[in-house]
Amino acid sequence: MATTMTSVEEAGRCLATPAAYTDEARLHEALALLRREAPVHRVETPGYRPFWAVTRHADVLEIERDNELWLSAPRPVLRRAEVDAALDAQRARGGGLRTLVHTDEPEHGALRAVGADWFRPKAMRALETRVRELARRYVDLLAEHGGRCDFALEVAAHYPLHVILSLLGLPESDFPLMLRLTQDLFGQDDESRRRGAGAAAHTSVLADLLAYFHELTAARRARPTGDLASAIANARVAGRPLSDADAASYYVIIATAGHDTTSSTIAGGLEALIRHPGELRRLREDPGLLPSAAEEMIRWVSPVKEFMRTARADTAVRGTPVAAGESVLLSYPSANRDEEVFGDPFRFDVGRSPNRHLAFGAGVHFCLGAMLARMEIQALFAELLPRLAEVGLDGEPAWLATTFVGGLKRLPIRYTLR
């Protein structure tokens, strides 16, 4: 892949530049340069604490699997230094967000067990009919838009939200609020989405989410209703009830990450099919490719851009020393285009097999909702593709400025339905 990057330093800074994720070609140019010339690269850039960028699939996988050496706490994701400081101070006071993403073993395993049964194969089979019904409902909505719509906003943003909030047991009247708060949370670096600039805006979004879920916890403890929210509210860990803060944090990760990542994959998957009409035709002609196509969409989009890990002890990654207390950034878009693992990695291939992408992570932090996400993606495209006579772009797509979670925020399409 040709590069116009002037240095690995410039490429490394892209990982701490939210706007870099709005230009897919430029981003992957930077990541390819890092993989080739500096797969473990120290990034120092204004506004962020230093970190090591890890861009090769093998290294990301090894770090993910070694949860004894590499810890999620105290820096699970890349944030501006002022936001890190504000959240650290909040946690020191016993408040703030503390989800599965933030915790390490043995606490992580105990917390994960609270919701695990709701995402196992038996539970997914019970949910499959409902997911298919919702997929049909949202494809039906396309008929109401007269052949033109913003697919990212009108379909992709709402369908997975409906699925996960129904699983939690939230009323449909609250869905718009959850969508807005999720977009506020993950859009903090995007000028068109963010609530405001600086740490105060970020902590205010978290405060609103936690306040909503504190109320939900109290309601489900008083009157359990047999849904996932009730299971979380009334869970016991090591013989003790979850604290209000831990219960609210659990809801936040389920309700936000549980739909936003799938939304990004669905929108990005359709965009990939539009830009690769041969693959769209191939998938139409052989619906049996839907499972592999869904995996390829997940690899292609890589909606989670990074997680961070902090070294418990002095170590080395690919021969590069990393001191105890230093943090690494695991770049999933880079790992999922690694030439050492994927043949022709910049080709969108609905039949790719094997597909050893790391979009769901690995090890103890493997995505709790991976099976649900796969089901939702397959159900939506199983409903959509037979009904699409024609589809194409109706303007330029736009990506979210982010360094954490995101994808297309706009996907204008024109289409004809059968």
Automatic annotation (TrEMBL):
Record InterPro entries: Cyt_P450 (IPR001128), Cyt_P450_CS (IPR017972)
Keyword Metal-binding: yes
Classification via CDD domains: CYP142-like
Keyword terms, alphabetized: Heme, Iron, Metal-binding, Monooxygenase, Oxidoreductase
Protein family membership: Belongs to the cytochrome P450 family.
One Pfam family per UniProt: p450
Species name: Actinomadura luzonensis
Name recorded for this polypeptide: Cytochrome P450
